[in-house]
Prior knowledge:
single chain; mainly beta; 4-stranded parallel beta sheet; two-stranded antiparallel ribbon; 1 helix; 8 strands; 8% helix
Amino acid sequence: xxxxxxxxxxxxxxxxxxxxxxxxxxxxxxxxxxxxxxxxxxxxxxxxxxxxxxxxxxxxxxxxxxxxxxxxxxxxxxxxxxxxxxxxxxxxx
Length: 93
């Protein structure tokens, strides 16, 4: 997604009209929980087919998701996804 000059959120042209499939843990139902997950800005999903987030996580700045990625935090408390590119993998935090 991109933010236009008039502050509208639109699907990035590179996505060819197909948004990524985003599955978030139930704890992210409300806006305030989403804001806590991406305090450094959202990860890049330009080349993402599907992302699944399980458990409480935050994203560092400069996280890029490509292909199909599952991010799991099976523990208690929030854990950070470090900066970097994640492609077609499962990330256990």
